[in-house]
Amino acid sequence: MELGEEVNIVLNTNSVEQLSLFDFKSKSQSKELGQFFTEPTTANYMASMLHAIGNVELVKILDAGAGEGILTISAARRCLKLGNRRVHAVLFELDTGILSALEKNMDRLVKTFISNGGKFSYEILNENFILSRPDKHERNFHISIINPPYFKYNSKSSVYSGATADLFKGNPNIYASFMAVVSSCLVSGGQMVAIVPRSFTNGLYFKGFRNYLQSNMSIERVHIFRSRNRLFKNRGVLQENIICKFVKCEQQPTIEICSSACSNDLAEAEVVRYPQKLIIDGDDLHNIVRIPESAADGHILRLVEDWPSRFEESNYYISTGPVVEFRTREFITAKVRKDSIPLLRMHNVKAFRIEWTGKHWKDVWFILKEGHEKHTCSNKVYVILKRFSSKDEKRRLVAGIYDPKQFKDHLIGLENHLNYIGVKGEDMDLVEAFGLAALFNSTLMDRYFRSISGNTQVNATEIRLLKLPTRDQIISIGKEMQGTNVYEQSTVDKIVQSALNIRDL
Hints:
The chain has helices at residues 40-48, 70-82, 99-115, 129-132, 174-185, 207-216, 276-279, 295-305, 430-441, 443-452, 460-464, 471-482, 489-499, and strands spanning 6-8, 29-30, 35-36, 59-63, 86-92, 119-125, 141-146, 186-197, 218-225, 241-247, 254-260, 270-275, 309-310, 316-320, 332-333, 340-344, 349-350, 353-354, 364-367, 376-378, 382-386, 399-402, 411-414, 418-423, 467-468. It is of the alpha+beta class. The chain is built from 13 helices and 25 strands.
């Protein structure tokens, strides 16, 4: 298969046809533990990613958060199909309420292996996987399929703070600790398949974890779900989750990206194979993992990554609005005063413009009382980006243009849910602001950004790492945009693509 070639997966979820699926309790969910258990179809798909173990007398499976054992069942059945008839599983589970169900399901698996001429054994540990740190004394596991819990914890007071400091720097989320310890438990060539939030693939908080993971594991395949709320159905999970397969070896030259709407259409997943260098951004220390949802998005990713420079190299800067409302309540008023200025919030930012009249029920003022200096910005031209959007919104990037002539004051207030962009060492003019805003508001840039970030939050760190065309090209776009009063998406896209000599996407 050529790089970039699209193929279809034909998925056989029955790893051993004569085996029937075990019954699992529909209440398999524990918000307190941050755990949402995997459905059988998804578990079988994850197991189907495992390749043959090779000439190993006893395959060892590690389940870091076993629940009722569905992932171990799927993994063990996959081993049986691949010809590995002797399998031993070590299962960690904290919830004492489901240990009985877990043991019963493992006993059924023992009988299944016997009926198929094999032998399955297991050990259930009612221990905290992270605090137990099994990798300290045992690093001989061949397989681990995990759906770890995910929650943030206090980096100063939590028992998990620093628990994996010997592996990576930072305390981003408990699921990262699970992945790191599992990785440390694997033998050379061991395989890890994980269903986790996408958030680890980008962002400053996960930088240390990404560096650790990429120095120890090869990303082989990533499966992205285009719908965020249909994977863990009816369970209120709004995280964007992905399934990813890793092998403990040096990074391989190609990575497969698969995509489907949800777990119901896994058999029709679109699969595209990309060069590793396109998916893992190794040009900086952040090692962001890009995930294009389709072959078309992969084409856009290639186009943009060929642009000449990054955001900061183009002499732009981006900052987050300095007004954090819950910390500056005494400065904020709903009634105009002589010593107040407009405070811009997310609802004021529209494509190419700022709407603020003081009459909208959300419009407020910022009082220029003593101490205001660290919360206010100079009244000059900015491109303003919303920091938050819904995953299922049409656009992730929305860029407005702030024209200082819109307000007479010498200062402006920008709330913390906004990012503002200017030029280092000089004032941005409106022509360039229109060009930069058009670029951010284009379909091209929005789809590119979705490939590098699954977050609904638009972080300044991610914008700083974006590739951009030359400033001359951006100014050329701005001149075209200023010459039209039509800001429809088709017009914006036509102007941007024409200036960048891009044909149909």
